[in-house]
């Protein structure tokens, strides 16, 4: 079933490439009872993800009482109790006024927290739910070399696999959502047959300052900013800033969601801030270079899912603002890092835009149902609101790919449609579903259609994954997606034929769970799209040990398992930097 839509475009403001066009429609589309989808020019919502909404009712569980787990917990305690001496000491040299202000504000905060304890937290803000089991944080792991490998690492894998995740430095003292955790990068480096592992915090401004102060003082976007207590926490935060107890002008972001290697720089991103530039050291360790504004070219936040065009080398990105217009902006960077002008996208309401898609000539921006209503906080609720005026059942947390089909004048978009749309933000008893879907936008008629790619009897929840990155924006046959079952855990990944729906599954093993599968092409010039390997961090919940599994994407057979020296929590998105690219790091 289709619905009427119109498509319009915006002329390119900066460069001659015609890429700067937007798909938009004049009316809502994503129909619950139809297979249509649409992207509107003046819409209001989008949903998304990474650092905001979350996921989920994480089953409460305790790690087995193994020696490894105990050691890690002890290390974490040490880490928390022994802040790094290298961090700037924000509270050093406080004058009398500042000391008094700090005492007063601490007392107010203590009173607020005491009152909060009288009311149970919702599951979406309860740290006992959100960071239970292997969602719980780990301490940093300095680089360890010569890791044991079962099987043989394919010779083509030379470089470093990196994955981002949320790893709170401090034990939460009030509401906390999985997405609120401090960014940590987990890195496995392959170097002439030797494999190393390290994990490090991304040294964000909030992490550095909180470590120096000795407790969490930055508001948590999802877990804390609800109702009147959320307003109070914001006021407390800015009061500390005005008193010189912290610097609130250098960003609030956690850099925990995505990673991209662009213009010789590894960037760690969350959609609430600028990216952070992180270097991979020759030994395989990680070192944060700093908050990165592309050489003073970017003065706004950037989402964690920028798109790197495999042919042009350009990077495409969005920025959204929850308070002031324009609520959404689009921009891009040339391969050598020159930023285009911003293109303001007119949205009626501030909307969370976690992900989008590109084709050879278009940028596809989804219009979803989750919007920000800051006034809801005054009424005691969450500012993240499900806009019921919009057509339901079309919340694509992520878009896996898109391409043009000139023969039918269509743009094809591949994504996972998640229902209920607001289940990641608000407590919900309805079972979550994430349905791999194909959305077709007709450029001539303005109509759109949507279909479920996998037959309903065989369908599974698919979230987090990718296509062959060399085909981003081009027609791709396969997608490699996490089997998000039992939700929110990931028991394996699926290789899905996007045209037929045929699905081949790889299950990590009994009581073994992972996250996003990364597809690494064996050779960019290979004729076979699936000629490559899947890399995935996997955690064994029986032995409480973690490993990296390397699976042949053509045969779907396990090629090698790297045994890791410390636990890797379930996390978010990753990337791979080839050895050659590492040599040209800035
Ligand atoms: Fe994401």
TrEMBL record:
Keywords: Abscisic acid biosynthesis, Chloroplast, Dioxygenase, Iron, Metal-binding, Oxidoreductase, Plastid, Transit peptide. It comes from the Eukaryota. One of its GO terms (cellular component) is chloroplast stroma. It catalyses: 9'-cis-neoxanthin + O2 = (3S,5R,6R)-3,5-dihydroxy-6,7-didehydro-5,6-dihydro-12'-apo-beta-caroten-12'-al + 2-cis,4-trans-xanthoxin; 9-cis-violaxanthin + O2 = (3S,5R,6S)-5,6-epoxy-3-hydroxy-5,6-dihydro-12'-apo-beta-caroten-12'-al + 2-cis,4-trans-xanthoxin; a 9-cis-epoxycarotenoid + O2 = a 12'-apo-carotenal + 2-cis,4-trans-xanthoxin. It is an enzyme of class 1 (oxidoreductase). The keyword tRNA processing does not apply. Binds 1 Fe(2+) ion per subunit. It is found in: Plastid, Chloroplast. GO terms for biological process: abscisic acid biosynthetic process; carotene catabolic process. Its cofactor is Fe(2+). Fe cation binds at residues 305, 354, 398, 573. GO terms for molecular function: 9-cis-epoxycarotenoid dioxygenase activity; metal ion binding. Belongs to the carotenoid oxygenase family. This is 9-cis-epoxycarotenoid dioxygenase. It comes from Deinandra increscens subsp. villosa.
């Amino acid at each position: 079933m289709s619905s009427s839509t119109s498509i319009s475009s915006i002329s390119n403001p900066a460069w001659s490439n015609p890429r700067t066009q937007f798909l938009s429609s004049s009316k809502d589309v994503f129909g619950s009872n139809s297979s249509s989808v649409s992207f509107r020019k003046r819409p209001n919502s989008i949903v998304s993800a990474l650092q905001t909404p979350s996921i989920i009712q994480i089953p409460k569980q305790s790690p087995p009482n193994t020696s490894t787990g105990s050691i890690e917990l002890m290390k974490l305690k040490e880490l928390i109790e022994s802040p790094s001496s290298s961090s700037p000491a924000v509270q050093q040299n406080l004058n009398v006024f500042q000391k008094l202000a700090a005492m007063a504000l601490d007392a107010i905060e203590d009173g607020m927290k005491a009152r909060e304890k009288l009311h149970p937290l919702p599951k979406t803000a309860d740290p006992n739910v959100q960071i239970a089991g292997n969602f719980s944080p780990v301490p940093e792991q300095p680089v360890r070399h010569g890791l044991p490998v079962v099987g043989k690492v394919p010779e083509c894998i030379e470089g470093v696999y990196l994955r981002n995740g949320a790893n709170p430095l401090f034990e939460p003292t009030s509401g906390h959502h999985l997405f609120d955790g401090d960014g940590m990068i987990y890195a496995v480096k392959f170097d002439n047959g030797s494999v190393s592992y390290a994990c490090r915090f991304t040294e964000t401004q909030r992490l550095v300052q909180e470590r120096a102060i000795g407790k969490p003082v930055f508001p948590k976007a999802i877990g804390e900013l609800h109702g009147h207590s959320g307003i109070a926490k914001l006021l407390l935060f800015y009061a500390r800033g005005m008193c010189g107890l912290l610097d609130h002008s250098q960003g609030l972001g956690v850099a925990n969601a995505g990673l991209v290697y662009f213009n010789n720089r590894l960037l760690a991103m969350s959609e609430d801030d600028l990216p952070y530039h992180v270097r991979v050291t020759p030994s395989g360790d990680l070192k944060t270079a700093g908050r990165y504004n592309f050489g003073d070219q970017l003065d706004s936040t950037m989402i964690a899912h920028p798109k790197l065009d495999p042919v042009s080398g350009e990077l495409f990105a969005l920025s959204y603002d929850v308070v002031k217009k324009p609520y959404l902006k689009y921009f891009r960077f040339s391969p050598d890092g020159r930023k285009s002008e911003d293109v303001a996208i007119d949205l009626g309401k501030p909307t969370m835009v976690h992900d989008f898609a590109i084709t050879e000539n278009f940028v596809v921006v989804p219009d979803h149902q989750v919007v920000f209503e800051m006034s809801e906080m005054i009424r005691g609720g969450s500012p993240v609101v499900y806009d019921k005026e919009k057509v339901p059942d079309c919340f694509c947390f992520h878009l896996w790919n898109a391409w043009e089909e000139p023969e039918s004048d269509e743009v094809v978009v591949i994504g996972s449609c998640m229902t209920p749309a607001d289940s990641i933000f608000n407590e919900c008893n309805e079972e979550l579903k994430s349905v791999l879907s194909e959305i077709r936008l007709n450029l001539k008629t303005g109509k759109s259609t949507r279909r479920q790619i996998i037959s309903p009897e065989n369908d599974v929840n698919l979230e987090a994954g990718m296509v062959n990155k060399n085909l981003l924006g081009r027609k791709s046959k396969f997608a490699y997606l996490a089997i998000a079952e039992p939700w929110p855990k990931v028991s394996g990944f699926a290789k899905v034929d996007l045209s037929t729906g045929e699905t081949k599954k790889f299950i990590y093993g009994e009581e073994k769970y992972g996250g996003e599968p990364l597809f690494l092409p064996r050779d960019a010039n290979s004729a076979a799209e699936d000629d490559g390997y899947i890399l995935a961090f996997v955690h064994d919940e029986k032995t409480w040990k973690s490993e990296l599994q390397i699976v042949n994407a053509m045969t779907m057979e396990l090629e090698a398992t790297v045994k890791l020296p410390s636990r890797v929590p379930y996390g978010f998105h990753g990337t791979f930097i080839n050895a050659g690219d590492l040599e040209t790091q800035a």
